[in-house]
Amino acid sequence: MKTIFLRFTDRAEALALLGAAGLTVAPRTETETETGPALPPLIMTAAGPVYPDLVFGTGIVALPTGALDGDGQPILAPADGCHVNLLAPDGWPLPGPIAGKVVTPDSPVCVFVG
């Protein structure tokens, strides 16, 4: 399995382009709708499961600004875009609609455990 890091303009674009790439949203139960992940597992037809992570449930990544608050803690500011990580099988061909959204973070702030 490999992690593919994606950055979209916003959540609407993320869902639209993931859908255009042939990924369909798996139905969620009522409990998952209330308490589960903001973006459910997506399954790509004939390619096996591809698991997305709408980073931090919002797609928003907060990065240090270099400034400190009154308590000496780093002040954070949101990075541009909606961030989605995909956990995909090795050799999975990246669909065209999302190919232009791949980014390579120097130090990813959110990764899959494993």
Characterize the structure shown.
The protein is of the alpha+beta class and 114 residues long. The chain has one domain (2-27, 35-99). The chain is built from three helices and seven strands, in the order βαβαβββββα. It has a five-stranded antiparallel beta sheet, with helices on one face. A two-stranded antiparallel ribbon has the order 5-6. A hairpin with a 3-residue loop joins strand 3 and strand 4. The model has no long low-confidence stretch (mean pLDDT 82).
Whole-Å distance between the termini?
10 Å
Number of helices: 3
Which regions contain 5 or more consecutive residues with pLDDT less than 50? none
Basic shape: elongated
Number of strands: 7
Write out key terms for the chains shown.
7 strands, single chain, two-stranded antiparallel ribbon, 114 residues, 34% strand, alpha+beta
Question: What does this entry show, briefly?
Answer:
It contains three helices and seven strands, in the order E-H-E-H-E-E-E-E-E-H. The protein has 114 residues and is an alpha+beta fold.
